[in-house]
Amino acid sequence: LPVRESHIAKKSFVYDLLAHFDEGRTYEPRKLDGHSVLITRILTYLSENLAGDCSLAAVAAHIGYEYTYLSKYFRQTTGVSLHAYTNAMRIARAKEMLVSEPHTPIHLVGERCGYASQRTFDRVFRSVTAETPLDYRRRVLGIENGDPCVPNEPFSR
């Protein structure tokens, strides 16, 4: 291979090489089978309704499948239960919100992520991350305890 001095020359060489391998190739779109379509429908429903009812019964009713079949299918396909997957997605969204919206009270973050009470939100968050939502926010944002810019109002319902 020739020695290339600049990164532009190196990139050009790689693109030329890839174009050579790509010549004459035809690409066909991947066809989704029934299983791919079903898991896509489930995951789409969950992502669009993460703040709402993501119970197995709600997903099954929306998708139009039996509760027991859907439970077994989801576990076999993803390797985790629907409940565990939903909690992981909710906590991932909560982590984003805790950092991107530092003035939003913790209980509102929990509500917006689908938790009916701050206690449940704290418990699930701690089980997934090994720290409370407030401790996570303080650690990631580098805020000392007692800083007034991080509200932690009690959950009201």
Describe the fold and architecture.
- With 157 residues, the protein is mainly α.
- Helix content is 62%, strand content 0%.
- The protein has 8 helices and no strands.
- The protein has helices at 7-22, 34-48, 56-63, 67-78, 82-100, 106-112, 118-129, 133-141.
- Helix 5 packs across helix 8.
- The longest helix is centred in the middle third of the chain and has 19 residues, at 82-100.
- It starts with 6 loop residues before the first helix and ends in a 16-residue tail after the last helix.
- The relative contact order is 0.09.
- Mean pLDDT is 84; it is low at 152-157.
How do the helices and strands line up, and which of them pair or pack?
Blueprint: H1 7-22, H2 34-48, H3 56-63, H4 67-78, H5 82-100, H6 106-112, H7 118-129, H8 133-141
* Structural class by sheet pairing and helices: mainly alpha
Helix content: 55-70%
Query: Which stretches of 5+ consecutive residues score pLDDT under 50?
Result: 152-157
- N-to-C series of helices and strands: HHHHHHHH
How many DSSP-defined strands? 0
Number of H- or I-type helical stretches: 8
Mean pLDDT comes to 84
First-to-last CA distance: 69 Å
Strand content: under 5%
User: Rg from C-alpha positions?
Assistant: 23 Å
Instruction: Choose one word for the global shape.
Output: flat
Can you summarize the main beta sheet? none
